[in-house]
Amino acid sequence: MKLAATKVPISTVWTAPDAPRDIDAPATAAQPDVAAWAKSMDTETRLGLHGRTLTQLLFAEPVLVRTERDGWSEILAPWQPSSQDELGYPGWIPSSHLGELPQSATDPVAIDVPTASLLAEPGGRLLAELSFATVLSSVEHADGYTRVATPDGGSGWIADDALRSVLEPSGPEDRLRLGELFLGLEYLWGGTSAHGLDCSGLIHTVSRVLGMRTPRDAHDQADTLPNIPIDEAQPGDLYFFGRPGKQVHHVGFVSATGMLHASETGKRLEEGPLTDDRRATLVTAARF
């Protein structure tokens, strides 16, 4: 295996090289346009992603490359813990989405707004539009901007007001504040970006911004994070849902009025009281 890094803003991870459909071409292009791809899909088309997409990688995210075949790379994503492989979440991405790891630097920072511009110099030419939860190593600070290391030995600048140090202490209110940035965002199976999130993707990406290494899937989150009695859950904790004899299939942040969560395909990220069906399937709670 070899180490690499995602050199595009968002790379969607697929179950196999032949999983993408014709409509998925914007997501698999050498320079993917995930925003356009998400906008192009109606509910039926989004339902068709089940069994095709797994997760998404963000800019400069490290990966382990297992094999390469016909322009595709079989990878493991170490920043996305999974019970499927102890080295990270497995799947396939276009090889064109990969580059060399960024140069060594210090003070990791995360984008804590929906999207942020990566610039060639402060206030200068746009290099890429990056998603929430992209984590980068900072190199220097100047004039309200931070220079960050990028794949293939490069660098770029991001406005300081779009960044947060992942080493900064955080609390439950930070988890809810960041989650609320995406109220109304349409659910996307396998989504971990500002252009679409699934239930566990919301938890995983918010955690990443706050410097916490949280598993990618809901059932792994339930198995890994410290469980607490449901009646002791407080805003910022997690609710997990499952049916008898089945593994956990849904997760959301506990909120003051109920739950903040990415519900399901065809719906949008919402905050409000638990429905009767949710209450009937609520199986445990957890605390970071």
TrEMBL record:
One GO MF term attached to the UniProt entry: cysteine-type peptidase activity
Residue span, NlpC/P60 domain: 169-288
Record GO biological process: proteolysis
Stored Gene3D superfamilies: endopeptidase domain like (from Nostoc punctiforme), SH3 Domains
Annotated InterPro entries: NLP_P60_dom (IPR000064), Papain-like_cys_pep_sf (IPR038765), Peptidase_C40 (IPR051202), SH3_YKFC_2nd (IPR057812)
Keywords: Hydrolase, Protease, Thiol protease
Keyword Hydrolase found: yes
Signal sequence range: none
Superkingdom of source: Bacteria
The family this protein is said to belong to: Belongs to the peptidase C40 family.
Name of the protein in question: Cell wall-associated NlpC family hydrolase
Organism: Kribbella rubisoli
